[in-house]
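Reading a protein record of the kind used here takes only a little practice. Each token is a code from a learned vocabulary of local backbone shapes. With that in mind, consider the following protein and its fold in token form:
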Amino acid sequence: MTGAVAGRTLDDVLDRMTSILEAMPPELAPRRAFLATYQRTTRAVGEALAYGAFEDPAWVQAWDVAFADLYLDALDADLSGDTGHRPPRPWRLAFDAPPDLPPLRHVLLGINAHINYDLPQALLGVISDADFADAVLLGRRRRDHERIDAVLSARVAAEDDELSAQGRKSPLDRALTPFNRAASARFLREARAKVWHNTAELQRARVAGPDEYAVRLAELEVLSAARIADLLAPGQVLLHLAVAGFGVVLPPA
């Protein structure tokens, strides 16, 4: 994966996002909700890179490009309608969710697929088996992974304001805004901690061979898809996630 993203930058990713957004018809508003959120978050990561928030900015950029590609490739496959190249199940369920759901629900469905399913794969794409054997280097990779939390947490209030501007929040939602924002920051931290665990599990499977890796990745796909039911349940979903958790955990092999 590292070689595949060599020479590409977050600006290239943002250009690709812009092209997809501009070509997306109005009736696909739910897909636009997540893509626009992700585009704003990607810009925030680029700003954090510019002011030196990470220990290894070149690695973070390569990782973020690889990460974005997993989502954008799934979105392209969905938009093309090519039945021979379907998105992974967590993305299919997110894309096929009822269009009249509030934008927040569509964003959460996208976050589930992208963080719980895509992110461990993206990390493996830019952390070699030799890197995993180097405790000092791996520690640096993990710290930069955790620093993304600060970027995401800083976006919570702004993204909540975006949803409010769309006029799709109920009076109860507005009353719960401070609690929902705190819950969002909490479940993002919790999910990313579980992502690191799942990345290590997948790496052990990768060392064991392609068949073992395929089995473990399939397990992760099932776990991530199963979270959809929680995200579609009635009630205050963010408060529920703050208690029950958002991430998924691969059991030991």
In short: The chain has one domain: 2-244. Residues 2-244 form one domain. The chain has a mean pLDDT of 83.
